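Anyone have tokens for Heme ABC exporter ATP-binding protein CcmA? Sequence:
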Amino acid sequence: MRLIAENLGGERGGEPVFSAVGFALESGQALIVTGPNGSGKSTLLRIIAGLLPAAEGRAVIEDGGDEFPSVASACHYLGHQNAMKTVLSVTENLRFWRDFNGEGVLGVEEALETVGLGGIGHLPFGYLSTGQRRRAAIAKLLVSDRPLWLLDEPTAGLDKASERRFAGLMSRYCAGGGIIVAATHLPLGLDGARELRMGD
Ligand SMILES: Nc1ncnc2c1ncn2[C@@H]1O[C@H](COP(=O)(O)OP(=O)(O)OP(=O)(O)O)[C@@H](O)[C@H]1O
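Reply: yep, here.
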């Protein structure tokens, strides 16, 4: 499987933000998107995910088969917001996403253990600390299988131990054939990742 971005251009509020962005990622490869505030990293991720229209160009999945014919069907998108309901428990939130996106290799409890949140699934999501919320949102990536992760500042709010744990998780995901595109200001510890610098 391959993710191809061809001559992508993005605009916000009718103003161009970037143009002529192109890359190709094979299964197992990762791309780190860097650049100053406002250079268009989030806009690029949202265009790739299909959440915003491209001003020009396109992003496509090749060889995704019947299961993953499009980027939208192939990706998990983790944005700045965690996309969890504060009044539902962590477990209820993750069950919702598993039912919505389809079952994955890991169950809800296993996914919570993997991000170091074992035993707190019963708590309302709104009770969690900022870093715990991010870790629960990362667990969302694990309860349904998708071959492409689009991650916007995934480690924002994480402590050092959680950063290291997430780096290991991303490495294992790529080793298993996953593709990652991650916008970040912080080093992600993802060996061998390519870099796309926006705003130059
Ligand atoms: N809804 C919107 N309407 C108009 N302009 C917007 C909108 N959302 C973002 N922008 C503008 O688009 C540009 C790119 O924003 P974007 O969030 O993609 O940048 P970024 O590189 O992700 O920034 P950061 O590093 O601060 O997260 C900015 O100039 C921003 O002000």
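The chain is about 30% helix and 25% strand.
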